[in-house]
Amino acid sequence: MRKIWDIPGGIHPPENKTQSLQTAVAVPPMPEQLVLPLIQHAGTAARPVVDAGDQVLKGQLLAEPGGAVSAAIHAPTSGLISAIEDRPVPHPSGMSARCIILIPDGRDQWCARRGLDDYRGASPTALLDRIRDAGIAGLGGAGFPSAVKLGPPQPIDTLIINGAECEPYITADDSLMQERAAEIIEGTMILAHILDNPGTVLIGIEDNKPRAFEALRDAVAQSPTAQGIIEVVEFPAKYPSGGEKQLIQILTGNEVASGRLPADLGIVCQNVGTAYAVYRAIRHGEPLISRITTVTGKACAHNGNYEVLLGTPIRHLLAHSGFDRDSCGRLVMGGPMMGFALLDSDAPVTKATNCILAGGRDEFPPAPPAQACIRCGLCAEACPASLLPQQLFWYAQAGNLERLEAHDLFDCIECGACAYVCPSHIPLVQYYRAAKGEIRQQVGEKAKADHARQRFEFHQARLARAEAERTAKREARRLATAAAQHRVATAGDSQAAGPGLATGAAGDLLKAAMARTAARQASPEQQRAKLERALEAASDRARSAQARLAAAEAEGADGEQLDKLRARAEEARLKQQDAEHKLQAFAHPPQPPADAAESP
Amino acid sequence: MTSTRPSSPHGHAPLDTSAIMRCVLLATIPGLVALTWNFGWGSLINVLLASALAVAIEAAIIAARKRPIIFYLRDNSALVTACLLGLALPPLAPWWLVAIGTVFAIAIAKHLYGGLGFNPFNPAMVGYVVLLISFPVQMTAWITPRDLLPEGVDLPGLWQSLQIVFPLLGTPELSDGFTGATPLDVFKQQSGLLVAQIYQQEPLFNRAEITSYGWEWVNLGFLAGGAWLVYRKIFTWHAPLAMLAALAIMAALFYDGGSSTSGGSPLLHLLSGATMLGAFFIVTDPVTSAVSRRGRLIYGAGVGILVYIIRVWGSYPDAVAFAVLLMNFAAPLIDNYTLPRTYGHDRPRKATEKKQ
């Protein structure tokens, strides 16, 4: 038996997993349309390679990766691309984003597939390319593009397949492991091959899934290749054991250093769903176009797992599950601990959608108003990262970002264990998310300010250089003039016979200087235009200063800032007045007194 | 469907703050029973009187602060403060003593600092110390345990007890002499005697089953209630155990073989005075103690050491209140330097660390 380590903290919320495990994985009817967001993964959006009006086949590439960390998107069935437009997507903010809309034609006709009978003959890079082309992104919920994770620069000695599924209610991985154990094992072997056969290959499962554990263990025993290589490990159920960092700690006793990746420890972690998708992609040449999603909760008459085409509107899945909107207290994508509430059931199932939880009103009643934090410390006892959530809350409220960082806010995995146990019902995770956002924003602003300062300093340096050059030129001219005068003087002395010539030379110099001045003296029209321009610029400045002041007042800026802006606006106004006066003075030069003009 | 955007997690554990406070109240029952059995109705009257006053004061202040009264009263925190103060005060204390203590605890120590969760000092102990400094005579008048009363003297009955507490109810007809010294008083006053001699002279000790008659059962009662709270995971064992261990170690170090300068045996210190009440109901007050496990160990040990120092070398016979208030001062400092080691970090950090 493998040694199992414990993680600090953790909680045991009611599992609620049995209700969705009563039936085998089913296939819902084909929806009327599929909505495929260009971002279904962590990273940059995919780039569409089809246009509205195109006919596509099942499995055909619709969008290619939009960058190094991105994933391709394929047609989940054959049909017509009706549009590429903004649609509601599953996101905590309830936002809309670019989606490819596919109207199924009902024929479900595959494009050409090229599977590999023997992956061992292929090089890891070739296999990685196939995984990238298949658009596989972590199916555990985070949706990180798998090809990136599977090609780390570091040597890997441990491959961990995550079958923990520690969130209550979700049974997508459980049912997959029970029903498709052999494929998962095969997928795991492919992953091991890509990673140059790490010495340790583990599949970790919580002990509340005995059937999945047995299925995988049997599948390993029956596989001639996996036997003796893959070890299926069972460990005590405790939320959040399925977090990547926590699972690594449970199975290896090691911790991923703060701000580093598992690969730095020589570990790669993949979800069982990802291993299955990799198997389909390599063995059968099928891109990632469907996934297993749990539909559960008291607001659904039938709870179960579905093999859902990506892009299937959640509304369609719910309708198929006997969803009762009136009895639904909360519609959540993901589990009850880390999932987010959905505003709109038009949003589609994506690569990361492991669960649709339609909780009844009594199941997820609205949170009671938060009471005061009594620093009871239940949160600290529950935290798997050994943070002090009560102190983080205190400093988040106070906006003390420095203390938040000293208390390792950024090591918070937002698992929600602290908020789950908080007897005062404080939405702790929400405070931490907000504080992290604030710190990130501050870091960004500081970078911008630093950049601006550098530019300013460079500008000042350039001005100083230009000034120095001008000074040097002036000095050179002065010296030249002095030398010329000296020459003239000496010439006058020496050539007493030709004073006209001497004065002629000096006169030339004088004339040239006067000509230069005259050239600089513009015509009256030019002078007028110049003054008008000055007035226009001054008015512009005065207007914008006034606008800035008004904006600051509306925002409720602090007194000091307002005073500064007021002073600036006043200054700009005075300058504008000044410019007006000058222009007037130019246009209407003071007339001599009338009587003086009339006098003979 | 709700129209607001609820944030994860969407579920919640059943335990809430009111329930925690209720558990603490329930856990005081064994100690309260032992107090009542040994010293009569006084403690029960203290607790009930302080509770009624505390709820009234709390409601008045919440109203003055323009907050929803029922919502704040429901957290039961005022009841806990009042209950602990009532248990700590000498039985049969006059009503005004209880009233002044409760006003100080709730109005000043709790609400003037911002209410529940914001008070730096334990409200019950603030109330207690104010009374101890202001009214030393009333505060040091304890009662002799029921079975050690002289022949012909009885503890006051319920009505008589009420008359003692509320003189307006009439003058009670009482046999005199039911007040007496506590074990810690005895030890403080009997300088020049060997421990063995004190034990021989005093029925408080020589009739005791373990170490001090009556008091040992009161302390065991609070220990039982506290152990139940630890079992229910209302708080962790760290602070109480650290306090008891530190107190016992101090007592063992300065036991001095039972000489005339001895501070008393570890068992005497553990099972006399307010030791167990302090360890499981005062030191564990989460608001005013340190937050991390390591912090709570240090905090508890600090209380234990201070309790011994003040008991033995200070001018007061018991010291839990002073020790707790002193450590309340230190708690934020302790917090700064006792952060746990976060996942993925080599060593614990300090709260005062600046970013590089």
Backbone CA Rg of chain A: 37 Å
Strand content of chain B: under 5%
Largest interface: A-B, 72 and 49 residues
The average pLDDT value of chain A, as a whole number, equals 89
Give a written overview of the molecule.
The complex is a heterodimer of chains A (600) and B (356). By secondary structure, chain A is an alpha/beta fold. Among the domains of chain A are: 18-106 and 132-341, NADH-ubiquinone oxidoreductase 51kDa subunit (Rossmann fold), CATH 3.40.50.11540; 486-518, no CATH class; 522-551 and 559-590. Helix content of chain A is 43%, strand content 14%. Chain A has 17 helices and 16 strands. Chain A has helices at residues 124-133, 146-149, 172-179, 181-194, 210-222, 244-252, 272-284, 314-320, 378-382, 389-398, 401-406, 417-421, 428-494, 499-520, 524-555, 559-587, 594-598, and strands spanning 34-37, 47-48, 55-56, 61-64, 73-74, 79-88, 96-104, 158-163, 200-206, 230-235, 267-271, 290-296, 304-309, 328-333, 340-341, 355-360. In chain A, the strands form four sheets. Chain A has a five-stranded mixed sheet, sandwiched between helices. In chain A, α3 runs parallel beside α5 (210-222), α4 (181-194) packs across α7 (272-284) and α10 packs across α13. The radius of gyration of chain A is 37 Å and the shape is elongated. Mean pLDDT of chain A is 89; it is low at 498-502 and 593-600. Chain B is an all-alpha fold and 356 residues long. Helices cover 58% and strands 1% of the residues of chain B. Chain B has helices spanning 17-27, 29-39, 42-64, 69-73, 77-88, 95-110, 123-134, 136-139, 158-165, 183-189, 195-201, 203-206, 215-231, 238-253, 266-270, 275-282, 293-313, 320-337, and strands at 142-143, 179-180. Chain B has a two-stranded antiparallel sheet. Chain B is globular.
